[in-house]
Design a protein that fits this description.
Blueprint: E1 2-5, H1 6-11, H2 13-21, E2 26-30, E3 33-38, H3 52-65, H4 73-82
Parallel strand pairs: 1-2
Antiparallel strand pairs: 2-3
Length: about 80
C-alpha cells in the first residue's frame, strides 16, 4: 500500500490512477492521517446487482427510519404541494 500526501497526489495523479488500476491500493494523507483511498474500480458489468431480499430489507430499514406524521397519504401530498415540493 502506497501513501502520498495531498500535494504529492496532486502532482502525480496520473501515476496514482495507473497504480490503482494495476491493483495497488493508494492512500492519500492529509496532515499525516489517511484522508482518501484509491482502489481499482470494477467495471459495471462485473458489479453484481443486489438481490431482491437485500433491496427489500434496505427499504424496510428506510421506512422504519422515517417518523410517522399521522397524516393520510392524500393530506401529506397536499401539504408537500402547498410547501412547493
Amino acid at each position: 500500500m502506497a501513501r502520498y500526501s495531498v500535494v504529492e497526489a496532486k502532482n502525480n495523479l496520473s501515476a496514482l490512477i495507473d497504480a490503482a488500476q494495476a491493483g495497488e491500493e493508494v492512500v492519500i494523507t492529509r496532515h499525516g492521517k489517511p484522508a482518501a483511498r484509491m482502489v481499482p474500480s470494477r467495471a459495471p458489468e462485473e458489479a453484481e446487482p443486489p438481490s431482491m431480499a437485500v433491496v427489500l430489507d434496505e427499504l424496510r430499514q428506510l421506512r422504519a427510519s422515517v417518523p410517522a406524521t399521522g397524516l393520510s397519504r392524500a393530506a401529506l401530498i397536499r401539504q408537500l404541494r402547498d410547501e412547493g415540493y
